[in-house]
């Protein structure tokens, strides 16, 4: 497709979104960096670098559309079992991406267990966020060392620890575990649940992404590998979302 046709398609999609109630929170599973790298004949590390650059593009597109919150899954707990040489390159790419997002003026939050990363990487991420001075409206969650099951377990354990510290007996501890109590102890406890979750690379599964928060989310699956994800793909996802009748479990 030529650049002129790309621009024509984007203009048509932009027009189709006029008057639509866009999502207030979009979650994105950025899948396919390694597959993209194999297809174009570059290293896995370059695939991850290109994927990180595409995250910056995504955030700019969402900011332009006045979408207030985006959660991007950058590194799962399962990913931590990848070969050490791949992880070593990935840690630097992730830290650079966090620095780029914070430097762009977005309000950045890391969700997940970033303390599972090497101490020097964890310290760099903390220093980046400490030095950040947000200037733009978009809030960004970067899920690093994140697993949905672990997040729920951590929340329940926090409830039980707090209850035990207060001297609650066994029955009272059980009663303390409620939907509201768990929600209040998630990494996203003060944020709206995602309205739309996008996954790239043709995979149609959630893999544990925002398990608790996505109970009423709409899903959109894209064939493009993440580094090839284009603004038109985002607009297609939004147009499809706007055409749906949300039932919220009803």
Describe this structure in words.
- The chain is of the alpha/beta class.
- The protein has one domain (26-147, 190-242): Decaprenyl diphosphate synthase-like (Undecaprenyl pyrophosphate synthetase), CATH 3.40.1180.
- The protein contains 9 helices and 6 strands.
- The chain has a 6-stranded parallel β-sheet, with helices on both faces.
- Helix 1 (3-16) runs parallel beside helix 9 (231-243) and helix 6 packs across helix 7.
- It is globular and about 70 Å long.
- The mean pLDDT is 94.
Considering the chains and any ligands shown, give keywords for the structure.
250 residues; Undecaprenyl pyrophosphate synthetase; six-stranded parallel β-sheet; 9 helices; globular
Report the portion of residues in β strands. 5-15%
Average pLDDT works out at 94
Largest sheet: 6 strands, parallel
Q: Assign the CATH superfamily.
A: Decaprenyl diphosphate synthase-like
* General shape: globular
Helix-strand string: HEHHEHEHEHHHEEH
Q: Specify Rg, calculated over alpha carbons.
A: 19 Å
Binding site for substrate: 32-36, 48, 76-78, 82, 199, 205-207
Active site: 31, 79
EC number: 2.5.1.-
InterPro entries: UPP_synth-like, UPP_synth-like_CS, UPP_synth-like_sf
């Amino acid at each position: 497709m030529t650049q002129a046709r790309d621009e024509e398609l984007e203009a048509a999609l932009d027009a189709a979104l006029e008057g639509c109630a866009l999502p207030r929170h979009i979650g994105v599973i950025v899948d396919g960096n390694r597959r993209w790298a194999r297809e174009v004949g570059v290293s896995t590390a370059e695939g991850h670098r290109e994927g990180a650059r595409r995250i910056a593009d995504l955030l700019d597109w969402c900011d332009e559309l006045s979408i207030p919150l985006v959660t991007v899954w950058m590194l799962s707990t399962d990913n931590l079992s990848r070969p050490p040489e791949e992880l070593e390159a990935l840690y630097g790419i992730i830290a650079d991406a966090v620095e780029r997002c914070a430097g762009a003026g977005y309000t950045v939050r890391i969700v997940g267990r970033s303390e599972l990363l090497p101490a020097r990487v964890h310290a760099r991420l903390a220093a980046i966020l400490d030095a950040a001075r947000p200037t733009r409206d978009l809030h960004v969650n970067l899920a690093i060392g994140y697993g949905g099951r672990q997040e729920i377990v951590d929340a329940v354990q926090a409830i039980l620890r707090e209850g035990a510290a207060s001297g609650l007996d066994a029955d009272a501890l059980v009663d303390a575990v409620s939907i509201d109590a768990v929600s209040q102890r998630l990494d996203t406890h003060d944020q709206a649940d995602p309205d739309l979750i996008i996954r790239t690379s043709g995979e149609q599964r959630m893999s544990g992404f925002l398990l608790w928060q996505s109970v009423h989310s709409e899903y959109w699956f894209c064939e493009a590998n993440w580094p090839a994800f284009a603004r038109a793909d985002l607009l297609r996802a939004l147009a499809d979302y706007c055409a749906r009748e949300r039932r919220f479990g009803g």
